[in-house]
């Protein structure tokens, strides 16, 4: 089992097609097939289920994928640590959808221009999943909002989990209501009792459920996959949603929603204890001009 074989396996797992994986890797299809078969023989399990031309990961393949990604990442980290003066290699960044859209294009563009040798891999997920992925080594760092409740709400909680972090952005979180909705001051004032939100694990969803449930029945949840979908649900009159002001300001001609400020929430840059590479330091350097001065770093909400 070598790193080349592990890389081939990860690409096939991502593409779920030997043909597409071979094209992406710049290899002939027969070579990719042979490498996968050799890996399966070495491990003694089938990593993929084959149904005609359809390829899916087996249960064993799903489990092995996490290990393969971590082994490749650890090898890349080791190479970077041995050359700390020259940012290079791969930096795997996880982020919330809102941060990716409203905050990261500028810093990431600056990083790419200054250090083109650094390969950036960006993935999005809710905050809870991002923290888990950093902890297990699936990603190197993450932009996440610490949830308002639970076991990961402060810097000390992060340290107890083997993580470190610092606030880098502060978001003003708005309750967005359909046009024509009455004035809102408390959760009980919200007439629409359906919340358009991301899946479980989203810190803003937790905040919304808590705020809307004060003095009223809990809202029904309509799970969606993007902020555009959330705002469409609100515009149609059937839902309310919690959205960072920075995301709403990206709209060229936003509908005349009614909004109410619910909280100010810090976005944290989180990384594993002991993780320091030149590429990560370059990211931190690129972020600095885009970071407002935060008055407090002790909590996630204000």
UniProtKB/TrEMBL annotation:
Recorded superkingdom: Bacteria
What GO molecular function annotation could you give as one example from this UniProt entry? Answer: transcription cis-regulatory region binding
Sorted alphabetically, the keyword list is: DNA-binding, Transcription, Transcription regulation
Q: Does the keyword Ligase apply?
A: no
Q: Does the keyword DNA-binding apply?
A: yes
Q: Which InterPro entries match?
A: LysR_HTH_N, LysR_subst-bd, WH-like_DNA-bd_sf, WH_DNA-bd_sf
SUPFAM superfamilies recorded for this chain?
Periplasmic binding protein-like II, Winged helix' DNA-binding domain
Describe the location of the HTH lysR-type domain by residue ranges. Answer: 1-58
PANTHER family the record matches: HTH-TYPE TRANSCRIPTIONAL REGULATOR, HTH-TYPE TRANSCRIPTIONAL REGULATOR GLTR
Q: What is stated as this protein's family in its record?
A: Belongs to the LysR transcriptional regulatory family.
Q: What is this protein called?
A: LysR family transcriptional regulator
Organism, as annotated: Caballeronia sordidicola (Burkholderia sordidicola)
């Amino acid at each position: 089992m070598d790193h080349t074989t592990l890389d081939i396996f990860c690409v096939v797992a991502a593409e779920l097609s030997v043909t597409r994986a071979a094209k992406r890797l710049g290899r002939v299809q027969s070579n990719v097939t042979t490498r996968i078969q050799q890996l399966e023989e070495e491990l003694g399990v089938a990593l993929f289920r084959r149904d005609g031309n359809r390829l899916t990961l087996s249960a064993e393949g799903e489990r092995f994928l996490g290990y393969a990604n971590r082994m490749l990442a650890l090898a890349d980290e080791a190479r970077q640590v041995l050359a700390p003066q020259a940012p290079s290699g791969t930096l795997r960044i996880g982020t919330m959808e809102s941060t990716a859209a409203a905050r990261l294009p500028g810093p990431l563009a600056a990083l790419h221009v200054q250090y083109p040798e650094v390969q950036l891999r960006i993935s999005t997920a809710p905050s809870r999943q991002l923290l888990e992925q950093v902890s297990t080594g699936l990603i190197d760092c993450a932009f996440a909002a610490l949830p308002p409740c639970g076991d990961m709400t402060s810097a000390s909680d992060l340290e107890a989990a083997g993580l470190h972090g610092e606030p880098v952005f502060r978001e003003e979180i708005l309750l967005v209501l359909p046009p024509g909705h009455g004035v809102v001051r408390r959760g009980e004032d919200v007439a629409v009792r359906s919340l358009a939100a991301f899946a479980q694990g989203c810190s803003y969803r937790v905040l919304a459920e808590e705020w809307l449930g004060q003095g009223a029945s809990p809202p029904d949840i309509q799970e969606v996959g993007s902020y555009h979908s959330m705002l469409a649900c609100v515009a149609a009159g059937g839902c309310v949603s919690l959205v960072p002001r920075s995301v709403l300001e990206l709209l060229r001609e936003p509908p005349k929603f009614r909004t109410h400020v619910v909280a100010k929430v810090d976005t944290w840059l989180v990384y594993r204890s002991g993780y320091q590479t030149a590429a990560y330091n370059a990211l931190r350097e690129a972020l600095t001009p885009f970071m407002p001065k935060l008055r407090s770093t002790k909590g996630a909400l204000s």
